[in-house]
Amino acid sequence: MAARVTEASIQALAKGAIESKENANNLVDLLDYLQSRRARVVKWSCGAVATAYGHLIQEHYSWLVNSPAGRKQQAGVQGSQNDVVVKFRDWMRENYTSCKEQLLTLLAHESRDVQEAALNSLLLLIKTEGTCHIATFHSYSFPNSLLHQVTGRLLDDQTNTSSLIGRFEDYLVYDDIRFHWMKNIASVLSFKKKHQLTQQLAENSFAALQPLHSHMATDDSQLTDLFAGRPPLPERDAGKEGETGEEEEESERREGEDEAEEVMEEDVANPLRAKMSRSQVRALDVQTLQKHRKRFSDAWLAFLRLTLSSLLHKKVLVLIHSEVMPHLLEPRLLLDFLVDSYDTGGVVSLLALNGLFILMHHYHLDYPDFYSKLYGLLEPSVFHVKYMPRFFSLMDTFLSSTHLPLYMVAAFAKKIARLALSAPPQGNWSHDDHMTCCMWSHDRSNGGSGVCD
């Protein structure tokens, strides 16, 4: 009769694998438990494999994570033990790769507890790989290839993953995680938009983007909380041999960088960056506010190119002026989205007002039809929509400028007065800011009701 699997027995397997390579087969048992039908066993095994491989990475990073230095070290093994050592290391790497693949698969497990355990285990491996790379090579390389796979699983196009994304939000306090998370969102959406565009993808993407604003820094000095290791100081990095050309190439693979990645204008004009190694540039980017804002912008713009449902479209418009615009590198890039929204009509047009007005007022963008379309929104139905108070508050702001021509304000006052005859009372309106218009409101010279025809 097989022994009963308990949390203690699983932890004992992990401990044995850590203590001696003679117990390496314990790792195979742990990977088997990841496929158990019992959710509790799978959950325990997630933590155990992360603990075991975390210790093994710290001891054998150079060859276990398959770095160029590790391949050289393996090629240099001499004597009769060469084949045995090489085969053992290859086997360990294959098992580590299998471990990560199984944990990624478990992100879609039916048990919420298993999903969270798998996510935490993957993040622990990311942290360990990152810190060990710095300790081994004295250079910075975030293991973004693994985080990119996590991002792709969370931005699923068939299953609602918002609850697991909410769990991932706990890690957004770390500047390096947030930086690469935003980068990966843009990358995943750009790919899936061409192949697997669904409303579920849009919903999950919104869940991933919405909390970002509360974690965005406002100054470079705030970007100091790093999850996967603190980059060495440039002086230290320059004073050591650091990464070879092959190791730089491997770091690019781990980061998931594209050689043709865009270069910002300030990068070209910055002589300091020109003298830095790739490792130093990557480290600097993670701790530079402009680069974070660029990633934030890329992620949101990639999302706004998706086809949004009416409900999701409204959710985005409600927060875009307060939670998105302030952190964009170039808010003017929202113009097309906001103009298209404003032209949609109905409630969507009402919600697009604020963002569009901010672009006009603060960023001096010209939209000649703004007031004519605002006038067109004044229909009886406007008094019965959910966002009616917001609409009239915004309209009061739009018409408060004393530089607006009198005839324009008068036209709005006249139409509002007519609508008010058959609508709920709205109290004082913005003609109080334009006292000249009051003569029409109170003019009884024709024996009229006081409202100018």
Automatic annotation (TrEMBL):
It comes from the Eukaryota. GO terms for biological process: ribosome biogenesis. It is a multi-pass membrane protein. Belongs to the CBF/MAK21 family. Residues 220-266 are annotated as: Disordered. It is found in: Nucleus membrane. Residues 233-243 have a biased composition (Basic and acidic residues). This is Nucleolar complex protein 4 homolog B. PANTHER family: NUCLEOLAR COMPLEX PROTEIN 4, NUCLEOLAR COMPLEX PROTEIN 4 HOMOLOG.
